[in-house]
Predict the structure.
Amino acid sequence: MYRKEGVDYFIVDGHIHYWDASEENTANKYGEGFIRCFYDYQRNLSPAEWVWPLEKFRKYSEQDLVHDLFETGYVDVGIFQPTYLSEFYRTGFNTTERNGALARKYPEQLIVNGAFDPREGEPGLERLRALHAEWHLRGVKLYTAEWRGSSKGWKLSDPEAQAYLALCEELGIRNVHVHKGPTIWPLNRDAFDVADVDHAASAFPGLNFIVEHAGLPRLDDFCWIATQEPNVYAGLSVVMPFIHSRPRYFAKVIGELLYWLDDNRIVFGSDYAIWSPKWLIEKFVDFQIPQDLQSEYGSLTTDIKRKILGLNHARLYDLKVPDSAALPDAPTVAA
């Protein structure tokens, strides 16, 4: 838990990975380009002292993860978001199975999510059932731009995807995390378009759609969808590091999200191991929207920061919050 000026912050890092992009696991030039694109994000958006050597970035250890998240990073609970990328990596990039083995060792601190690809058809539905049976899934992470054979992506509005979302609803997998943000080479940017979120959120009001990276660079499109769909949330992974490299841009993004969504539907994610939560959390707690922008966006109060850093995720995942970090229940304002 993070504590600053007598205030306790319950921290839920809703977007973490335990990937293997080692040279031994990299299958082709696409896998090599993918991890190097990730690494460029770290190098370009992080304080210099938080940039890792490339070799460590490709495959970090269990000890690295535990240290960076729980020993120094203030995280109370971390949520693994898998990304298989089986076309690029021999045993997958960041799988539920690899994440889950670690979650079993730290059950109070780590939650493992599943994944699905509707292009797998009926076998994929059976695989999702098996994943849920093994890991008691509370969420899934979807990567709509992932390659599969000759296909370069899919949409939440595809008829095949509807069957998978219906199964999530049937199984009680309520939280659907969808990568809708900046592209990573060599994936197709258009396959990350946010438009299909609108269809899925309307069709499945019992599911929560957490749009990771808040749709960047399509922030306006995302906000117009989210203001109409009360089960759509903004995930701040990738958004957060701009607090260092471009603080006024970060202020405008967070201001737009607060205007359109309200503070109950914005959730924190570090995107570890691209970024480490320690510096993101410290900077966010100290951050304030510049005075000249507050007439339009308002200010970031301590209670808003506490919601974003953990309390909103805690509600989605039914996590127990220590009394010292909890807020009194407040009525939710409908969009």
Remarks:
- The two ends are 31 Å apart (CA to CA).
